User: Fold this.
Amino acid sequence: NKNISNSNNNDEMNKKNYLKSLILNHFKKILHSDIKDISSIKIMVLTLSYIKFGIDFTRTLYELGLSVPPISYEYYQEIIAIETQQQPVNHNILRDLFENGINDKTISET
Assistant:
């Protein structure tokens, strides 16, 4: 029974790692494409990654998404909404996100 349990855990971990890899690779491709609705896609990917993988992977994708325009206010709003769900809330992270959103001169209106 213990071997079956370990095998199931390994399978689940492999599936999660594979899915993370797929999301990360496709997200990188999206960031370098000419898709008109890139902002909404970036927001959707943040939301889905948080639901499936949690905050650490979502923060990685958020940072990656910042490196390629367009950046929208909604992009900042989504990561702020995700961060406010953390227990305990990290007020330093929230403050940085608010300040970055306010001071970002590259924000596009979407």
User: Anything to note?
Assistant: Residues 16 and 53 are 8 Å apart (CA to CA). The first helix runs from residue 2 to 31. The chain is about 75% helix and 5% strand.
